[in-house]
Amino acid sequence: TDAFLPAPQNISILSTNMKHFLTWSPVIIPGATVRYSVEFQGEYEREYANESWLPISECSLSTATVCNLTEDISASVPYRLRVRALLGAASSPWGTLTGFFNRVTTSLTPPVLKVVADGHHLLVELADMGPAFQFHVLYWKKGQESRVKQKVVREVSSVVHLDTMEAGAEYCVRAQAHVEAINRSSSFSPTLCVRAQGDISLWL
Amino acid sequence: GACRVSMSMAEIRAGFTAIKANIQSRDPIRTLSVLSHPHSLHKVKSSDRCCITHHLFTFYVDRVFKHCKTEDSFVNRKISSIANSFLSIRRKLGQCREQNNCVCGEESTEKFKQILANYEGLNVTSAAMKSLGELDILLDWMEKSH
């Protein structure tokens, strides 16, 4: 019956911003509901645990053709991944990802940020990218590009105060994401500029 | 000698915290310690830290994790992520030791021998589970001393 059930094909990894997903093409059996199970094997299992594989329970007996590996791929070593199809008591041969996957190859996108001039205060708000991320924020007064300042932001839970601005001056900000665990950074975000509130002249 | 090795302690600690209660419940002998008997790791001289850390990571990779397989898939997955992290860090520590010629002093060599003696004084599964259950002792010491 295994010949009846072919192994899943087109197995690939989608890894962006330290979130890793295994995907594959569905195994089509007319009139039947095919399910899948996924297993992973780290370098430790290959070298110290008789090349054993570990099942990912969240992706076992699932009909989805995608599996979130993020929780299990939490070391910077090469992993092997495989998936098979299940139909009743029948199971297909394993389809194995070609080669290895190491999270150091994840693609990193620039951070999304919002820059606010709150009176004389230059504030930045960064979209959360996950626990593995910190941000290098660069900011400067327009026209003084040689005097760029930098702030490292590790927690994005709140708005970050960057600087107190001179009245009416324009300030610019850009940022990149950094992942300490893999020692890599994203490219920089586009530069965003805001103008500080001008001085209020009082007529006495 | 000093070793500056980037390691994601937060991920290891999160993985361990998720299974700590389960692992420690499998260790019936609460009166003994593998890592802390008779002396705490905190007594290790700073010059010896790189060397003994490398020894300890080798000890966990070579001798502990393989004897910690359980019937619980979730626990096994967390042990796998810790073991693979230890393997990655051990490699960096090894490279660092070679470059910096970190050698273990007499005291810390004695300390590591004591840890092995504590480990070998128990049957292997109990010893492995106890050592895994004491991982936070190692992580605390590493964070405090680095």
From TrEMBL, chain B:
Cellular component GO terms held in the UniProt record: extracellular space
UniProtKB keywords: Cytokine, Disulfide bond, Secreted, Signal
Main location: secreted
This protein's record includes keyword Secreted: yes
Disulfide bonds: 3-96, 50-102, 51-104
Superkingdom in the source lineage: Eukaryota
A molecular function (GO) term: cytokine activity
Places the protein is found: Secreted
UniProt family annotation: Belongs to the IL-10 family.
Function of the protein: Immune regulatory cytokine.
Protein name in UniProt: Interleukin family protein
Protein species of origin: Grantiella picta
Taxon lineage: Eukaryota, Metazoa, Chordata, Craniata, Vertebrata
Primary gene name: Il20
Span covered, complete protein: 31 to 176 of 176
